[in-house]
Amino acid sequence: MGARLYVKVKEALLCKFDSVTFWTDSTIVIGWLRMNPNQLKTFVQNRTAEIHELTSGLSWQHVAGKHNPADLVSRGATLDTLLKNQLWWAGPSFLNDPSFDTSAVKSLEVVESASQDLPEIKSQTTQSYHASDNNNWFPFERYSQFNRMKRSFAYLMRFIHNTRNKNNKRTGALSVEELNESLTKLTKISQQESFPSVYETLSKQETLKNSHNLSKLHPFLDENHIIRVGGRLLNSADYSYDKKHPILTSGKHHFTTLLFRDEHLRQLHAAPQALLYTLRETWWPVRGRDAARRTVHRCARCARLRAKPLTPLMGNLPSERISPGFAFINTGVDYMGPVYILNRKGRGAQTVKAYVCIFVCMATRAVNLELVGDLSTEAYLLALKRHISRYSKPNTIFSDNGRNFVGLMNDFTKFLGKCSSEIIDYATSQNIKFSFIPPFSPNFGGLWEAGVKSCKYHLRRVIGNSHLTYEEFNTVLAQIQAVLNSRPLSPLSSDPHDYYPLSPAHFLVGRPLTAPLCEDVSNTACNRLTRYRRVEQIRQHFWSRWSKEYISEMQTRTKWKSRLDDLKPDTLVLIKDDQLPPLKWHLGRIITTVPGRDGISRVADIRTEKGVIRRACSKICPLWEEDD
Q1: Contacts of residue 140, Cβ cutoff 8 Å, sequence gap at least 6
Q2: Which residues form a coiled coil (predicted)?
Q3: Helices (H), 104-247
Q4: Which of 121, 328, 370, 495 is the most buried (most CB within 10 A)?
């Protein structure tokens, strides 16, 4: 800015100056101006070059901060301070002295000793490789593809050849001979790094001791000084030289790892056994089976295709399923369909879509089937009203994250927000709690998913391919509901003196809905019990049998019996999507797991390209941990 201001002032005044001096209190700037701009980084280099261009031939001097007027404003000063400050109006006092000599001030040359500690200077360090006698200097770890490593080394060897033979240079695309020479040299270097003692022993034309683990292979050096396996196939005339004497490599060396990866892709992602057999046609990797398994295990495409979701230990039953109470006091909801019904009878009738809304009691497994016309929130709200009218209001409704279920909860919240304070207080006391399972986790709602399965079982056998009207379909659903509510909750007994097995209908009407009518016993004396007490005794008798017969059958875990370790943070996982093939499943990183009441995590938060999502472990397929 000072250099640009000097040019503007000079052009405006149209005067010729005998001498011009620039002052700055920054020793770093003085050091930068002293240096060659090419030694500085780009940002500082461009501005330093501009300063040299604008102030060519003029001197730059250093002034202390306390004598610099510009320092006052840069640090902030009020108007009153500037009015009273002589430094701001007259400048430093030494400029008014006619005998003042600028050479006495700390100048450009004085800062030269501090130029080595200046910032924004380009690094002057150089790297060099020293080729030792055994040539163990090639950076194998820098490469992830075998062909790229081979071609890079071939260009390196071409550079060395052209440097030594200026009259016979190699140009153009790499030839087959150059690539083969590169592979031979890389093999030799990898063997010298993997088996230094063996290579030294064979170079001296000595044999390995019998105690050496490679002695059974009878290795030797060929004409290219590459270690090959002696073996026992020397007298065979049907095999090639590479088959009879394969090249020895170490399964732990990165050269062999790249070789296995390249062959794995060339063989169209072959399995470990086939991969090893194919490589042994030319190569003999030590501990080759481990290297083949490791290659297939770390192949990203193979890992995505064989990914399996986690199956943590089956969780404990929620309190809503093992606490006695009225039927449908805690209800699970799901949709089934679409089903097709006729819009009217007679000719010209058209089929329209409809759905079945299934309400399942969490404790008694009683089922209520409601036919709805669409998947809108309004249709679900009407079905819920019909259910409440028949079986009373539930305390909690459990469901998945369907849009119609979530929409109803949001609408219910908006409705409460518009009411007056008295209505809000009453609605809050009578509120229905909506509880949602994690997204895309049907195993968390196994109770109503089983109800959907049972309903489909009977519906396919009763209706088949025929189409019914709304009234006819509703009648079939009512009959199916009666059958489902008459299913026994506990195993049947072979003793004729035992009670009938409990069914969900016992908790609805006191007997199975499909059982024959019994004789009228209303006038029978029952130990001085009133009718109300007798009905209450029957209800308590059902719940007593429910806790003894039904609850005990739910004690065992039928699957997911073993406990797995929790997912570690930053683990790379696939998110299973039933609508997509495995190669199109989204990738993600585990952020954290969400433990349940028993301390076992069955849900995890995952960071994906679209943000953070929450999924159940049944939809998470781990690929590798962070170390892999």
Answers
A1: 149, 190, 253, 254, 255, 258
A2: none
A3: 146-164, 176-194, 196-203, 241-244
A4: 328
Angstrom distance (rounded) from CA 155 to CA 133? 21
Write out the two tokens for 47.
């501005």
Q: Torsion angle, CA of 80/84/88/91, rounded to 10 degrees?
A: 180
Q: From CA 318, how far away is CA 326, in angstroms rounded?
A: 17
Of 432 and 173, the structure prediction assigns the larger pLDDT to 173
Q: Which residue has the tokens 């609805």?
A: 508
pLDDT band at 263 (very low <50, low <70, confident <90, very high): very high
Question: Would you say residue 66 has pLDDT above 70?
Answer: yes
DSSP 314: P
Tokens of 107: 């100048």
Exposed, middle or buried, 232 (CB in 10 Å: 0-12/13-18/19+)? exposed
Q: How many residues belong to the chain?
A: 628
Model confidence, pTM? 0.53
The DSSP element (H or E) to which 282 belongs, if any, is: none
CB half-sphere exposure, 439, CA atoms < 13 A: 12
* 374, two tokens: 């669409």
Q: How far apart are CA 96 and CA 87, in angstroms?
A: 12
CA distance 28 to 120: 10
Token output for 365:
């497994």
Nearest to 108 by CA among 176, 224, 23: 23
d(CA 311, CA 407): 31
Render pLDDT for 160-212 as a digit per residue (tens, 0 to 9).
999 998 888 888 899 999 999 999 999 999 999 999 888 888 888 888 887 78
Give the DSSP H/E element, type plus range, for residue 214. none
Tell me the two tokens of residue 66. Answer: 């306390």
Residues 454-494 have pLDDT tens digits of 888 888 877 777 788 888 888 888 888 888 888 887 766 66
Residue with tokens 């209520």: 368
Single-letter code of the amino acid located at 393: K
Neighbouring CB atoms inside 10 A of 111's CB total: 21
